[in-house]
Amino acid sequence: MDRIITLVRRSGLKLIAAVVIASPNIATAAYPDKPISVALPFALGGPVDILMRAVQEPLQKELGQPVVIVPKEGASGIVATRYVARAPADGYTLLIQTNGMLITPQINKQAGFDPLRDFEPVALLGVQPMVLVTHPSLPVKTVQELISYAKAHPGEIDFASSGPASNGRLATETFMKLADIKMNHVPYKGVGQITLALMSGEVQLMLSSVTPQISQQIKEGKLNLLGTASAGESALMPGVEPISNTLKGFQAEVWFLIAAPAGTPPDVVDKLQKSITHVLNTPQMQERFKAASATVKTATPDVLKHMMADEYSRIGEIVSEIGDINK
User: Fold this and answer.
1) Are 325 and 164 in contact (CB under 8 A)?
2) Which SUPFAM superfamilies match (predicted)?
3) 111 versus 26: which is more confidently predicted?
4) pTM of this prediction?
5) What are the CA-CA distances from residue 199 to residues 129, 189, 196, 316 (Å)?
């Protein structure tokens, strides 16, 4: 009798083990069953914040759980990015970032994260072409006039960026290289600060993502829009000449993406990606992105992973050419 009971127990244990092995996603089948936090690396009111807040409410309804935005501004996005890289890989701590996260560790060796190794790409939210904007005190109205003026006045134009490891800094350095001009870099903390600096005339130029404040200043004639850094004419800014018409091959755009810590279960990543994509692919969300001067653009985690790897390599080449970018 004891032998029979033992055999039954062993058979039962084997059956349980077989079920667990055959169903690796059983532990995450109920995901999500509690609030999800999304770390915000940049200032409130900036493009990343605006787009995340647009997605927040419909994503909560889609997932059936609160989505909490957690501001963790600091060190050009390092604070939030490092925080998520070290968080549990369970899908409850996410990061909203830009392709700027691919710049930071190539410039700051103490960044404390590897954007390709430490994260699971979840979803691409959208893209935004950068714009070339100048203060009215700079006597130029076109990209060609700017290049000519800069060549005639080398080192006399100050340009703003939100730090060495920013899309704006890298884009401006690329612009200077292609145009064969030299301008002075003045770093600030965030798009809000560089916009105020440009409005006051403290600096004369910036290549930046678009914010409602920048758009309003351009409409009122307080800032001059010289061109967009899109590959062709942007549907978001009809009639505005692409910089590439003057500087062949010049293109600079900001991606907005969601990432999770490396090791997050594939089924969790898949559920998040499908939920986010479903939210984005609605006319209402596309209008909200358009109002923020961005375009909805989606990609699967695998496609986004390849995009990030290619961009990381491209940025590495630019950083090597620039040399000491931390100045």
Assistant:
1) yes
2) Periplasmic binding protein-like II
3) 111
4) 0.82
5) 21, 15, 5, 32
